């Protein structure tokens, strides 16, 4: 097809999936990226979250509109808003690190963030809105930390937050609407902890949680239904991998941890996320110290476990987060005990694909998702 004249006037008709429509008169030399900027002013949808389709083909930002108008003076496009998320990786490494980085789904790339105030390894993290909290861990001298710091993605600044009452590492954390929850881990003398704490972000205060039935470290923790905490696996006082799980109903009158059905494979140094109504428990180490590729899904209402597609890389001391579009598995250590920079994503296609590598290999890291 002959290349159209680029400077002619073109009518662009844009339709959204909700039935909204817009018409723009533009010059043929306008690029798709420029058109998205114009649409942002009309629709309120940020240009980075816009996806324009022409005959079901996704348009590249560098293409000119004349390429799609052809010989006519009119082109019809479909506007789709794609979810944008930022995955944050904190600390970890062969030694405690200050560094942090984030993956932007709009660009598909990892970028460096300002370093934390304190180097941390074996830390936990949780997010609330545009804030990420780095909680506890060990510093580069092996000191166990009770300190907490907060990163604001709107200002790109780290600040100190009120510290926990108990220093801990190899613990786990999650969040529910304005509160952080931290459970288990090890203290400064290496004792396994059964205690937990809750942090009210607005009030800036910590309070104690009920003791676990089985003290554990190197476990995983998730929140479901905005009121329940579920903990899985880890290592108990017997120094063996645990397959057990426990649940705490934060609104229940008894306020005690109840037992859950055991996982199929006892593991520690694992990760867990909630995605599309299921709890996914990923990777870890078995009692023989072998890194795992296994992924188990837990149907909490049914109380049943089943396996899904395994990861492509065996890893422990990893981090995992979930977004609207899938599950991201970050770093960790391989079977050969090498720290990993690799990232895998599990999506609705029920398979694992390789994503962009982090800028640094990290094990004992923490991950979070921010708006």
UniProtKB/TrEMBL annotation:
SMART domains in alphabetical order: Kelch (SM00612)
Keywords linked to the UniProt accession: Kelch repeat, Repeat
Lineage: Eukaryota, Sar, Alveolata, Dinophyceae, Noctilucales
UniProt name for this protein: Ubiquitin-like domain-containing protein
All copies of domain Ubiquitin-like, residue ranges: 10-66
Keyword Repeat tagged: yes
